[in-house]
Amino acid sequence: MRKLLLLTLVICVGVAFIARLYYLQVHDSKTYNPLEDTAIRKEFTYPKRGYVYDRNGELLVANQPSYDVMVIPREVEPLDTLEFCSLLKITKKDFIKTYNKAKNYSSRLPYVFLSNLSKDDYAVLQEKMRKYDGFYIQKRSIRTYRKTIGANVLGDIGEVNQAIINKDAYYGKGDLIGKQGVEKTYEKTLRGVKGTRFIQKDRFNRDIGAFEGGTNDTIAQPGKDITITIDSKLQEYGELLMTNKRGGIIAIEPSSGEILAMISGPTYNPNLLVGRDRSKNFTKLYNDSLSQPLFDRGLQAMYPPGSPFKTINALIALQEGVVSPNEKFSCSMGYKYGNRKMGCHVHRSPANMNLGIYESCNAYFANVYRRIMDKYDSSEKAMNNWSKHVKSFGLGNYLKNDLSVGQPGKIPTSETYDRTYGKDRWYTTFSMSNAIGQGEVLATPIQLANMAAAIGNRGYYFTPHIIKQIEDDTIPSKFTTPKYTTIDKQHFEPVVQGMFDVYNKGTAKYVKVPGIEICGKTGTAENFAIIDSTKTQLTDHSIFVAFAPKDNPKIAIAVFIENGYFGSRFAGKMASLMIEKYLKNEISRTDLENFVLKHSLEHEYQKPYSGKPFKINRETTLETIPEEEFEALKYLKAKIDGK
Amino acid sequence: MIRENQRRYRFDWIIIIVYLLLVGFGYLNIMSASHTGEITNYFDMSQSYGKQLVFIGLSLVLIVFILSFEAKFYERFSSIIYIVAILSLLGLFIFGKDVNGARSWYGIGSMTIQPSEFAKFATALAVAKHISDIQTNLKTIKDQLKAVALILLPALLILLQNDAGSTLVYGAFFFVFYREGLQQIYVLIGFSLVFLAVLVLKFDITITTLSIAVIVFGLYFLKRKKRTSLLQPIAILLICTIFAYGVKLFYNHGLKPHQQNRISLWLRLEKDPAKLELMKKREAYNLIQSEEAISSGGFSGKGFMQGIRTTGKFVPEQDTDYIFSTVGEEWGFLGSSFVVILFIILIVRILYLSEQQKSQFSRVYGYGVASILFVHFTINIGMVMGLIPTVGIPLPFFSYGGSGLWSFTILLFIFIKLDSNKINEW
Asked: Three-class SS of residue B195?
């Protein structure tokens, strides 16, 4: 028995050890992945971010080096803080604060002491850097915008937030990602793929060499360059015209759906969102709740389209066969239905379709709309049929394009009215405003430009898009296949002729450009705002939709100027100028240009906030900008022309 | 010497092969745990693996020496060897060198020698000599005290040099005494006291003594026949209570703070999360790192020199006391189990051979060897895997260090020599 005590203990201990080993190594460690081990540090090599060119090959966005001052607290020797702070342009308090942060983080690891040093600061600092042990300069790559245009088009890049990191394993803390515009929508193309190096570290977190000889490492793939459809000259010109105004301009090439210009006013210099002051500037732009520079009015602003929408009703009426082009309706300063009246202005009466369009006769289109609705027994069926036709022009839904923001607009269906009035408890007269593009109809400027393109193409459009070419790649086929409207080709001619006559003898005859056959349609949309919790009417929005030339159009455009009053006052002029600039690359109607540049609408936008009673529309006066400011704008214009 | 040549020797090859396997495998792991960057020179004397190779070479020379002496030499000279060992321990107080707070080394040039390692086999020899004496009867208190004194002397000297871990090893001789006739009651009392000590620390004195009272009196009243005096259970309870207070007192005042914390971590006594966090960074750091290294090895390990936690030196002392975590990471469950089984084979084989010895000296010595190896093996691997509190003692044949390797080699090969001689005895 005495012999057995130790023997038994030895066997027991052996069994216990093997059981413990099994528990630790086999039972507990099923999911072990050496690449995720805390003993392995992942180091990333960031590829060059792709460049962005405009449709003529002009470089818009490139990269520039940026310099971060790094610190390893352990290696810092006593230094002349006063001089160092003045070199970095920080206060001594900042210095101590950041230094302590770095120390708390780790005394052995590099910490970003100051990020995004400017090139000039770097140049000065670099010479003195050897004096400061423990500090060194690390080079990074950030964006640079070669022209100060297209902030809303190009967007910007910034550090990823936690939500994205959680969602997409590719991104890690401190990585840069496209935040807006093209930088956002083509993020994956532009960024490339970062390379990963797995580095083995010791318990003090120091590198001790590549893990497994670097066999798991990947090489960074550079980002691809892209060419966007924007014509930077046209964009620049549009932004100049938009100075001191709020609104949006969208120009599209109808034969391809390529967006030639995409202007949102007010805009900002895209270089504001680069480098050290990015977050400060972004906050400033973000918090500007009055002029909302980050709100892309060309894509996001939904307005009632007004008169340009009448062209759609005309087309639907022809397609449904309820009106012939020559049929006339009389107009006695408006259209009466029930005990209500839709007003109109003075013009010849009765009006056929051609006159109805170029004089923008409300009564004519009220009659047309009634005809469309009365074709069917039930207003539900009629409404849905009408809605289907309208939506085929890309209205009332997202365009599903490659822009980072967008809005669906609004086109009512029978359900819309069912919800408001109850099922089968509403009639054509309830939706009469739709006839003239008001009421339940909302559209964004890009949708209106696209609508103009579809009319110019006589029945089809390409989804408006921003991408023209990707290095070593093709653009998505959804942008190169045409989308057909529900209107047959032959019905377009009378409407196109009407739009042509808008310029010849109609509402836009004063903004006619010699030598170019433009088809267009003015629009004026009523504008209400809630001021001190009362609904107040403000000066109307000025709208213009056009395409040119009449046959095989090269450009379709929608211009929307907030509080610009009637269509041809601002929007029409700007559309003409944009079209001429694009087609001829010179401006013959300098009178129009001077008018647009000279006048500011800022005072209009201030009115509601002044706290005093104010006048609108007809009773407002135009305000001009000071002479020297005007000269400055003229100088910019000359620069665009290359003179 | 002439007669010596005529004698036949049969060395136990199983032990020798296991020994070579352990030393060789140990060397590979030391290489892995200590190298930095590419190994260009295996004899680089500035690196642990280079030195260990020299230590192994010298061990082989040592083996030849040990085996070449006559077997009777060890029995005859055991007292002298013991006295030399004690003197060398005493000498430390004058000539010793402080390393990590323990005064256990002699410095000779760049080399250091740790006499406490050599005291182990010296004590084993002395104990064997004492017990095998024809006049010794371990059933008598006098001889028991003599035997205990032989152990206590080196143990106390080592404790005074601040090497508590090595002191514990001398408890191994308890198994030897038991084998050689120590009364069963001592084993019972010994295990009960250890158990009691753990209970006291884990559940505090009141609960422990109360439950002991219930058990003791319960047993007393359940015993129908021949009820002895009530004094007996009361005395037992009294002794237990005194012991309990003694343990508590020792824990609070006798132990150093880091020793307290190691025990408190093992028994999970600390409830304050802030303090626990601090402990994790200090006392528990080694343990956490070593457990993580072992479990990251998985079933078949990451491969020789491929352990990222080993190469990153995440486990401090990885080439010495924590060498087993290298095995765990690089050789996985297969390699670690292999090492455990090798040790079991070695110890069981020594026990088996000891029982076969004709001379009592050889048998007692063999038992001593097996017990010392067993205690080292259990405490070391148990601590590396977090089964018992941290006690810094090396893994025999495996851990880096000349003194350790040589003393275990001497310890083992004296036994092999003794064993090989058994056919010449009658």
From this structure: helix
User: What ipTM does this complex have?
Assistant: 0.91
Question: What does the pLDDT average to over A127-154?
Answer: 85
Q: Does B294 touch chain A (CB under 8 A)?
A: yes
| Closest C-alpha among B337, B318, B344 to residue B398 | B318
pLDDT digits (tens, 9 = 90+) for B270-326: 788 888 888 777 778 888 888 888 888 888 888 888 887 777 778 888 888 899 999
**Alpha helices (H) in A68-158, listed in sequence order:** 81-88, 92-105, 119-128, 151-154
Alpha-carbon span A155 to A379, nearest angstrom: 45
Sketch the domain layout of chain B as residue ranges.
Answer: 2-180+283-424, 190-254
The amino acid that residue A449 corresponds to is A
Tens of pLDDT along A297-334?
Answer: 999 988 888 899 999 999 999 999 999 999 999 888 88
Q: When comparing pLDDT for B44 and A485, which is higher?
A: A485
Please report how many Cα atoms fall inside a 13 Å half-sphere around the Cα of residue A635, on the Cβ side: 6
Q: Which burial class, exposed, middle or buried, applies to A433 when counting CB atoms under 10 A from its CB (0-12, 13-18, 19+)?
A: middle
Given pLDDT bands bounded at 50, 70 and 90, which one contains residue B1? very low
Say which residues have a Cβ less than 8 Å from residue A506's Cβ, sequence separation at least 6.
Answer: A357, A358, A359, A360, A522
Inter-chain touch B340–A21, beta carbons under 8 Å: yes
pLDDT in tens, B91-141: 988 888 777 677 778 887 777 888 888 999 999 999 999 999 888 888 888
- The answer to whether the beta carbons of residues B15 and B350 sit under 8 Å apart is yes
Contact A546, A498 (CB under 8 A): no
pTM over 0.90: no
As a whole number, the mean pLDDT across chain A is 87
Which residue on chain B is closest to A209 by alpha carbon? B37
The distance of B279 to chain A (nearest Cα, Å) reads 17
Q: Which residues of B touch A200 (CB under 8 A)?
A: 308, 311-312
Determine the pLDDT at residue B282: 78
How confident is the model over A1-5, as a mean pLDDT? 82
Quick one: how far is CA A94 from the chain centroid? 37
Which residues fall within 8 angstroms of residue A565, CB to CB, at 6 or more apart? Answer: A524, A539, A540, A542, A617, A620
Short-list B395, B400, B391, B402, CA closest to B286: B391
- Tokens standing for residue A180: 């807006």
SS3 A351: strand
Q: Looking at beta carbons, which residues of chain B come within 8 Å of A201? A: 312
pLDDT at B25 over 90: yes
**Chain-chain contact of A6 with B296 (C-beta, under 8 angstroms):** no
Q: Residue A601: which of A546, A540, A559, A545 has the closest Cα?
A: A540
Domains, chain A, in order of start with CATH, read 65-128+135-140 (3.30.1390), 232-640 (3.40.710.10)
For A377, counting Cβ atoms within 10 Å of its Cβ (0-12 exposed, 13-18 middle, 19+ buried), the class is exposed
What is the nearest CA distance from B350 to chain A, expressed in angstroms? 10
Using the beta-carbon criterion (under 8 Å), do A209 and B37 form an inter-chain contact?
Answer: yes
Pairing of strands A519-531, A207-210: unpaired
- The amino acid at residue A630 is F
Q: Residue A100, class by beta-carbon neighbours within 10 Å (0-12 exposed, 13-18 middle, 19+ buried)?
A: exposed
pLDDT digits (tens, 9 = 90+) for A526-563: 888 877 778 888 888 899 999 989 999 999 999 999 98
Summarised one tens digit per residue, pLDDT across range A267-305 is 998 888 887 778 888 898 888 888 888 999 999 988 888
Provide the total of helices (H) and of strands (E) in chain B, helices listed first: 18, 3
Average pLDDT value for residue range A148-170: 88
Burial of A166 (0-12, 13-18, 19+ CB in 10 A): exposed
